[in-house]
Amino acid sequence: MMEASIMVAAGGTGGHLFPALALSEALIRRGFAIDLITDTRGGFFGADFPARNVYKVPAATFKGKSPLEATRTMATLSNGFQVAYKTIGDVQPKAIIGFGGYPSLPPMLAAMARGVPSLIHEQNAVMGRANRFLAPMVKAIACSFDNTKYLDGKLLTKSHLTGTPLRGAVLKMKGQPYRPPSSSSQINLLVFGGSQGAQFFSDVMPEAIGLLPSHMRERIMVTQQCRAEDIDRVFDKYEAASVAAELSTFFDDMADKMFNSHLVISRAG
């Protein structure tokens, strides 16, 4: 007997993909097969995503107010719809779950055009633009927060407060005791700002840590997520301040990084 297939559609950043991954883990435990449909960025997570197959569709995000750019974005999303429509026809999922981001639009719209039951999950207290567009059309809406902005009127009748799904690797750390550093041991500092990094931290953190007295700087080990274009200059600043640093555009062991840290400085993606 073939497994029932559930398709998950998500934008190609951790804020969208990690909740999708967490739900996928739970659905697989219940006997479902999972297929992920995302953009080329999301394909980066494919090796770690527990999906039977990872499908990539053309996608783009509306940026700025240029009519030309808006036209290009619409053309890309239209192309994505056509690719997704064929993919969904081939896979024939029993349902599709969208996790936001513009790359989720083509597959969600294509699935609804094929009559596939659909729902969305909103991770934020303010509903994102893609989910806002889809909300009136889907069968159900799952929310991480009560009183989600832009979720009102008729939409409330099909909304459900579920919270944000957490990955097994993160849940394993729940309840683990905090282990403070001793008065002379290494201090592990973790800095991250969403799966794509945060330029603000790249600008501010090396300068801030550089203001500490030398005996403090010598004890600090910084693990920081940076954008690719920022890594070299950030590393040079830490090196000039005699601060040990591990920098990367992405850490695939973030749960362990958080567990082993003495202080985390972060922001949402």
Structure notes:
By secondary structure, the protein is an alpha/beta fold. It folds into two domains: 5-171, Rossmann fold, CATH 3.40.50.2000; 187-266, 3-Layer(aba) Sandwich (Rossmann fold). Helix content is 34%, strand content 19%. The protein is built from nine helices and eleven strands. The protein has helices at 14-29, 67-91, 105-113, 129-134, 168-171, 199-210, 214-217, 231-240, 254-259, and strands spanning 5-9, 33-38, 53-56, 95-98, 118-122, 140-143, 159-161, 187-192, 220-225, 244-248, 263-266. The strands form two sheets. Strands 3-2-1-4-5-6-7 form a seven-stranded parallel beta sheet, sandwiched between helices. Strand 9, helix 8 and strand 10 (244-248) form a beta-alpha-beta unit. Helix 2 (67-91) crosses helix 3 and helix 6 (199-210) runs parallel beside helix 8.
Core attributes:
single chain, 269 residues, alpha/beta, Rossmann fold, 2 domains, 7-stranded parallel sheet, 4-stranded parallel sheet, 11 strands
Structural class: alpha/beta
Largest sheet: 7 strands, parallel
Percent strand equals 15-25%
CATH architectural label of the largest domain: 3-Layer(aba) Sandwich
| Strand order across the largest sheet | 3-2-1-4-5-6-7
Q: What is the general shape?
A: globular
CATH T-level topology of the largest domain: Rossmann fold
Number of helices: 9
Query: Residue ranges: pLDDT <50 for 5 or more in a row?
Result: none
CATH H-tier superfamily of the largest domain: Glycogen Phosphorylase B
So what's the oligomer here? single chain
CATH class of the largest domain: Alpha Beta
